[in-house]
Amino acid sequence: MLYSEPIEVVPGVWTTGQIERPTPFESIFPLSEGERLIVVVHGEEINDRVLDDQALWMDVDGVGPFVITGCAHAGTVNTLLQVQRIGHFQHIHGWVGGTHLVGRSEEYLQQTVRDLEQFGLSLISPCHCTGFKATTRLWQAFPNAFVLNFCGRIIEAGKEPERRVV
Fold first, then answer.
1. What is each CA distance from 111 to 28, 31, 51, 116, in whole angstroms?
2. Is position 153 within any domain?
3. What is the DSSP letter of 35?
4. Structural domain tally of the chain?
5. Neighbours of 69 (CB within 10 A)
6. What pLDDT is stored for residue 35 in this prediction?
7. pLDDT tens digits, residue range 123-164?
8. CATH number of the domain that residue 133 is part of
9. What distance in Å separates the CA atoms of residue 161 and residue 41, rounded to the nearest whole number?
10. Is residue 31 very low, low, confident or very high in pLDDT (cuts 50, 70, 90)?
11. 57 domain residue, yes or no
């Protein structure tokens, strides 16, 4: 069952619910001219805004809020803004997950980096669907917060990773 509102899935772990889209630059996919992302509802093709995109978040005692994204189709910044709004946080401590930044323009990446600065992130760990170029930009922009993510990586809230970049 899909829920548009935030839901506590287990004690202390919440979904974002349907993510608001206040940033003017974050789009679902970089589509070519004439391409559409559609969904068929009751036999009718409508534009798919991927409104079912959600993330998980938790407020870790003594550390602060952590966000785990899937692909962040709603946009990484929009997702973090949603958690900030529903959790009443001034800052987000950590964010781990997909960004859907692969194949994005340089301008899009620069805007993402600029907008991420407002969250005061102490940990940034992008993974799948981020792409090498975007991963590199995030590492360059946030060298003290960046943690390279890979299969088998263990990230513990409040603990310094053994090696941030392998």
1. 15, 18, 22, 8
2. no
3. -
4. 1
5. 28
6. 81
7. 999 998 999 999 999 999 999 999 998 888 888 888 877 766
8. 3.60.15.10
9. 46
10. confident
11. yes
